[in-house]
Design brief:
Length: 61
């Protein structure tokens, strides 16, 4: 079994062009070894796990 520490995963910010929607994502499945570009089901997980944080005053899309 693979383990990852969430604090070691890079957080990726996202914001809508108008600024009303924003979120920060941590791709846990990618940190566990999922190949994000592969379409081969043998190289992908059956589901994706992601940690999402929404800043105060913003809406999740």
């Amino acid at each position: 079994m693979k383990k990852v520490n969430i604090t070691e995963i890079k957080e990726e910010p996202w914001q809508s062009p108008g600024g009303n929607y924003a979120a920060h994502f941590k791709g846990i499945s990618i940190a566990l070894g999922r190949d994000p570009e592969s379409l081969d089901l043998a190289k992908r997980h059956s589901f994706d796990l992601e940690w999402t944080r929404v800043p105060p005053g913003k809406h999740n899309f």
